[in-house]
Amino acid sequence: MKTTPALEDEVQSVLKWLKSHATQATLDGMAGFAIPSDKAFGVAMRDLKALGKKLGPNQELALALWETGWYEARMLTSFVGDPARVTAAQMDRWCKDFDNWAICDAMCFNLFDRTPHRWAKVTQWSSRRNEFEKRTAFALLWSLTVHDRHADDEAFLRGLALIEREADDERHFVKKAVNMALRAVGKRNRALNAAAVAVARRLADSEQAAARWVGKDALRELTSPSVARRLKS
Question: Which of 75, 174, 204, 206 could form a disulfide with 215 if both were Cys (CB 3.0 to 4.6 A apart)?
Fold first, then answer.
């Protein structure tokens, strides 16, 4: 994308701020969370959130920050991007750049799940080959259980079908997202809990190790007294 001098100045100002708020301890700690640190400053998430709130929605800045390639700048994209202006093609381009679970989840929970394309992308990305692109489908479904209060049960039932179809993927970051999505759908209401428990039971009986783990782990929570109390109230 082409940047104006004023936009470039804003980007440089943000990068300068990030460098000044970086710590070696934060940078060193990223490895423990499986987050690449080769192009990162080491800025704590609380500071990124504070800066994102201060900057406010700015789609042009979001696009420019992403292009820098810096981890924290891309995290800020999730906070300053304008969901009404994010196109389906832009979501695809960003998704292809994902190289860790943290940026994937941040973009889903802070931006993607408020775009008009959110449900279409759950379906489209669920069959992607790349590990983090595929994770994004299920991280997005997970986030929609929290943030899309107007979605009907049918949308989440379609999500459960995708979960069941893809639960045999043994890759760590896909498997974890599939599991979290299943548990989240099952905690949305009683009807979806019953549907999610049925899926979890079938997966728990699967011959595939990954699917068995997804099913058994989800069952423990979805059939727990705490979830039952929550749904009853």
Answer: 204
Residue with tokens 């832009």: 90
**In the chain, where are the structural domains located?**
1-82, 101-233
Interior angle at CA 56, CA 94 and CA 49, nearest 5: 75
Taking only the tens place, the pLDDT of each residue in 73-97 is 999 999 999 999 999 999 999 999 9
Taking the C-alpha atoms of residue 160 and residue 196, their distance in angstroms, rounded to an integer, is 7
Q: Which residues contact 110 (CB under 8 A, 6 or more apart)?
A: 78, 79, 81
| Chain segment 101-133, per-residue pLDDT in tens | 999 999 999 999 999 999 999 999 999 999 999
Q: How far apart are CA 196 and CA 222, in angstroms?
A: 8
Cα-trace Rg, the chain: 19
Q: Which amino acid belongs to residue 19?
A: K
Does residue 1 have a pLDDT over 70? no
Q: Side chain identity at 60, as an amino acid letter?
A: E
Q: 215: which DSSP letter? A: H
pTM of the model: 0.95
Contact 80, 54 (CB under 8 A): no
Using H for helix, E for strand and C for coil, what is the string for 107-126? HHHHCHHHCCCHHHHHHHHC
Distance, in Å, from the CA atom of 68 to the CA atom of 49, rounded to the nearest integer, reads 19
